[in-house]
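**Backbone geometry record:**
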Amino acid sequence: MSRSIDLNADLGEFADAEALARDRAIMAYISSANIACGGHAGNDRTMADMLEASAAANVAAGAHPSYPDRENFGRTSMKMADDVLLESLRGQITLLKRHGDARGVVLAHVKPHGQLYNDAADNLHLAELIAHAISATLPRAAYVGLAGSKMANAARAAGLTFIAEGFADRRYDARARLVSRKEPDAVIENAAERIEQALDLARGDPIHNKEGGLIDLVVDSICLHSDSEGALASARDIRAALDKAGIKVAARR
């Protein structure tokens, strides 16, 4: 049986012309786009641009909400009352949905961003709160989260499809959690290593962790961050490597 994998990227996080052009170009190689919707980044222009580009490239579009923390790009934990955070997440998703509705684009998934994503990996209550936000705004959308995390439990309890995600350009620790960006070498800079990790994840092979051991991850989707150095070239080369390996790149529906 042939293998298939979803290849996704976090897009629309920077409004300058060069970044938007890069993000549009990345669309040619991926199958799913996670679009910033105002919490950590993104505005009306970037959301419209990315939705139109995803539709033109036949790429599944999804919301990429976060802690409401533009100052720190959503990469700092925030202590918030449940109702306040839930309202923020609903608002972010709804804003992107409105832009999608205006363009005939149905949002297929929701992937939390940054520290919200990392916090929810091991905090079931927070993972469930994200699931509630998805159910309230996009009840047919999938929940994208870290493979082997509490987010899988929260999604299934809420009746949502869960898409287990791995990363081509991030280091893992021995617990199969992402190494903090505050630590050195948290982002894989070497292009060949990114390709190798993407192929291992797509094949279901073990990957190396930061401590030098191996970890097993079962993933449905592989992410490449658009703001990583050389992201466009990596997207092109990872897609070419997957195609050469006979691994179909397709969004999970």
The mean pLDDT is 97. Residues 82-102 form the longest helix (21 residues).
